[in-house]
Amino acid sequence: MLEMLGYWAKEEKKEISTNVNELMTIYFALKLYIPNNRNSTARFFSDSQTALKYATKTGETESYILQALALQFQETTNECSLAVLYPPRSRESIKAD
């Protein structure tokens, strides 16, 4: 299991919405996972069900940056033949906070 932990710089946190930060974190985890795991299945646990929703669909928000990130996420998973699962909120996902 790959776990990520970190903090956003104050400037980044102010300028970007929480949903964008959460989706960017999921995307960064995806980029770390891909090199050794193409053609596989990945499970992403997140405390943000909203960010997970954006990762699976585009066109669900008026935010340009969220739409762009969601599209980038989907294109990356498709290019790498990666099946992505998003389990419902659980202890593992709450641990992310």
In short:
The protein has 97 residues and is mostly helical.
Return the string of H and E elements.
Answer: HHEHHEH
Number of contiguous helices: 5
Kindly report how far apart the N and C termini lie.
Answer: 17 Å
Largest sheet: 2 strands, parallel
| Major sheet: arrangement of strands | 1-2
Q: Roughly how much helix do the residues carry, as a percent range?
A: 40-55%
Structural class label: mainly alpha
Which residue ranges are poorly predicted, with pLDDT under 50 across at least 5 consecutive positions? Answer: none
- Output mean pLDDT: 76
| Rg over alpha carbons | 13 Å
User: Number of DSSP strands?
Assistant: 2
Share of residues in strands? 5-15%
The 3D shape can be described as: globular
Protein name: RNase H type-1 domain-containing protein
Give an account of the 3D structure.
The chain has five helices and two strands. The protein has a domain at 40-97. The protein has helices at 10-15, 18-33, 49-56, 64-79, 91-94, and strands spanning 41-43, 83-85. It comes from Rhizopus microsporus var. microsporus.
Lay out the secondary structure.
Elements: H1 10-15, H2 18-33, E1 41-43, H3 49-56, H4 64-79, E2 83-85, H5 91-94
Parallel strand pairs: 1-2
Helix pairs in contact: 2-3, 2-4
List keywords for this structure.
97 residues, mainly alpha, two-stranded parallel ribbon, 5 helices, globular
